[in-house]
Amino acid sequence: MYVPFEQLPPQARIWIYQADREFTDAEATEIQDKIKNFVTEWSAHGHQLHASGQLLHNRFVVLGTDVDVTAPSGCSIDSSVKFLRTLEIDYNTKLFDRTQLAFQKNGAINMVHLTEMPAAVASGEITAETPYFDNLVAEAGLLKTDWMKPAGKTWLQKYF
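The chain above was modelled as a monomer; its predicted structure follows.
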């Protein structure tokens, strides 16, 4: 059952998937429609999940479900992965590459490969204060407060 994202409770479980490129506005509209269609039918053991999804910054697919109503199962997680794999094929993108790191600089989202972090830090391209999208955030309430934070206050602190 589709629930508007802002109506998910703070403790709702979320998953964030980052595309390796920014989607066009036309693609973003299509993807948002596909997300809504998917979560409308998303279920666990025959029970519909109270779920939502959104595309943020034309790059991040966020799926969420109210675990207090119906907890997701292994099969429901598998169905979400299948859905995301379909998006990858349909839009020629990668949504599961965790080696690409997203930072915000001058209002734009810049990608840095994990192996390039030492050089990016050494050159000053990335500093401890550079906003980083921490896609490990797992609750809807933390999306607003902990998703984007200074790189030095994340697991990336070892580079500074």
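Residues 100-132+146-159 form one domain.
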